[in-house]
Write a structure and sequence with these properties.
Number of helices: 17
Helix content: 25-40%
Shape: globular
Structural class: alpha/beta
């Protein structure tokens, strides 16, 4: 019998001295079972044993009764660019995330021929709310092809483990260039080349193929992101590469044409799992049955043998915006022609009563995927731009309108105009309401994800989703037990994506771990810092009750700050079981 090095401890033979021993911990192994009080020891970056034994180790840590769990597996991040200048992928590891999946929605940064790099950065600055100057100053373009990007990640040495999608918009841009967001139908040669790029990336270690049909996904200058104008047939043809590879999954930022009925035949044909991401599947009090209907449609598809799942966030989806960049409203027809308008142009439009009337009419008949549906009580004045308006901070638009006997839309526009469109608003439009959201979180077709970490940094930071679930949905509301809450964040997403050896603290598993205090675990309010390349601002959050994070047996966060490492311990993942 051949025994791997990490199995020796579990079998009680071999190692005289392990790398690390963590003593006196309450161990949640990620499987959903009851915790075990005892010790855990590590060798060669893997869990070598769990139990009452306390074998000799080069380093010992006394947990003093704190809890230990696997690190979170974040299936929906956009660290593709940031990781090239920030190997820590801040703030995610400090918030308990040890494995990140990048390239979601098809918005990766490879393939990246030099002549399309400006397109890529410009589009990311809008569709994913990234600082354009930071992208230009920070991305280290030591790659052009997918395998070159994977090799560049290896050289960077990221702190978290990284898995990468090959993206529909990325390959469409590389092949069709500036026709990618204009022309719906590619030539046969273009389609063949896109398919070749997808097939090649899957052979080179992509976790799968990602795309978007979302009506909310617009790029620089208001152009549609390339995949959003592609046909279902084109998407299905490229997704077939995943089926032919015999491994990997498909992620679709859905809505519009990307509903379950349209996606199920593709899943049936390729025989691979598909994960849908859409605001339509989140809880919206103005249409409380819409979100759950997506889950039920997936459940019916699964009964027919076609595996579709919904990526569902566990916290309210917040949107921090000004009327100079009113992206939560961009999916409405009245905003179609002004998404990239200048401040001066927008001021003129917002003053026009005819525009306001068109906006009101849009809100009466919102299309599928629309983020905002007229819930003015969820639009808060986060930061007035003028001192004389300071008393308006944290007031919601509906209350102000009631006090003034005015239309809430007029109140918002008039305030923004009086402050040169610099008023900062905060909208909580989706996933608000404990009962409605809890129903979605508990559904078998849901997988807790959708942090969007690395994106929308100017406006929000949802990278602490795992800490929020454990504080809000476990400790405060009791919707999940702690053991089940941990499972939902660890082994559940890892298994669905076929990420081997992650999401568990069992002998042989990779030693991705978080030491925490169940009584205080949580996440701070958003904070603004200016630490992007070129000094650009971003929004981050701080952990509460996290005492340490380890990735592949190496500590990366000590409870206060990142551990300084010349090269991070994260692995670039290339081999998947799903």
């Amino acid at each position: 019998m051949i025994i791997a090095p990490w199995e020796l401890g579990a079998l009680g033979t071999g190692c005289d001295m392990y790398d690390l021993l963590i003593k006196d911990a309450e161990i949640y192994d990620g499987t959903g079972g009851d915790p075990v009080k005892g010790n855990l020891w590590i060798e060669n970056g893997r869990v070598a044993g769990v139990g009452a034994d306390a074998p000799a180790a080069r380093q010992e840590i006394d947990a003093q009764g704190l809890a230990l769990m696997p690190g979170f597996v974040d299936l929906h991040t956009h660290f593709d660019a940031q990781v090239t200048w920030d190997r820590t992928c801040s703030p995610s590891p400090s918030l308990g995330v040890t494995t990140c999946v990048m390239g979601n929605c098809g918005f990766g940064i490879v393939p990246s021929p030099p002549e399309v790099r400006d397109y890529i950065m410009n589009n990311l600055s809008v569709v994913e709310g990234m600082d354009l100057d930071a992208l230009r100053a920070g991305i280290d373009w030591q790659f052009e092809t997918f395998p070159e990007y994977m090799a560049a990640l290896e050289r960077v040495g990221p702190y978290p483990n990284m898995a990468v999608f090959i993206g529909h918009s990325a390959v469409r841009t590389a092949v069709m260039r500036d026709e990618a967001w204009v022309r719906e139908i590619p030539t046969d040669a273009e389609l063949s080349e896109m398919r070749r790029l997808v097939e090649g990336a899957l052979k080179d270690g992509a976790v799968g193929f990602a795309s978007s049909f979302s009506i909310n996904h617009s790029g620089y200058g208001g152009i549609p992101m390339p995949s959003t104008i592609a046909s279902v047939d084109e998407f299905g043809h490229l997704a077939e590469a995943v089926g032919e590879a015999g491994k990997g999954i498909v992620q679709m930022s859905a809505g519009g044409r990307g509903n379950v009925a349209a996606m199920e035949p593709i899943v049936e044909k390729i025989g691979r799992r598909m994960f849908l991401t859409t605001g339509a599947a989140m809880y919206n009090a103005s249409d409380p049955e819409l979100g759950i209907s997506w889950f039920e449609d997936c459940a019916e598809a699964r009964e027919r043998g076609n595996e579709l799942y919904i990526q569902i966030p566990c916290q309210p989806l917040s949107f921090d915006f000004t009327m100079a960049n009113a992206y939560p409203f961009h999916s409405l027809a009245s905003f179609a022609d002004i998404k990239a308008a200048s401040r001066e142009e927008l001021i003129a439009v917002y003053k026009d009563p005819a525009f306001r009337d068109r906006f009101r009419e849009d809100l009466k008949k919102p299309v599928v995927g629309t983020i905002f549906k007229g819930t003015w009580d969820r639009v808060v004045i986060a930061a007035p731009a003028r001192d004389e308006n300071a008393a308006l901070q944290n007031r919601n638009i509906a209350d102000l309108a009631a006090e003034q006997s005015a239309d809430p839309m007029d109140v918002m526009f008039d305030l923004a105009l009086s402050e040169n469109l610099e008023t900062a608003f905060l909208g909580k439009f989706l996933n608000v309401g404990d009962e409605g959201v809890g129903r979605l979180l508990q559904h078998d077709c849901g997988v807790v994800s959708l942090s969007d970490a690395g994106a929308h940094l100017i406006y929000m930071c949802d990278a602490g989703y795992g800490l929020h679930l454990l504080s809000r949905w476990v400790r405060e509301l009791g919707v999940f037990t702690l053991a089940e809450g941990v499972r939902r964040l660890t082994s559940h997403p890892a298994d669905l994506y076929g990420i081997k050896g992650r999401g568990r603290l069992t002998p042989g598993s990779h030693a991705d771990m978080v030491m925490f205090d169940p009584a205080t675990i949580g996440v701070s309010d958003p904070q603004r810092v200016s630490d992007l390349p070129g000094g650009g601002p971003r929004t981050i959050r701080q952990p509460k009750g996290v005492h340490g994070v380890w990735i592949n047996g190496t500590q990366v966060f000590d409870g206060t700050d990142y551990v300084e490492l010349a090269k991070g311990p994260g692995q670039v993942l290339r081999d998947f079981a799903a």
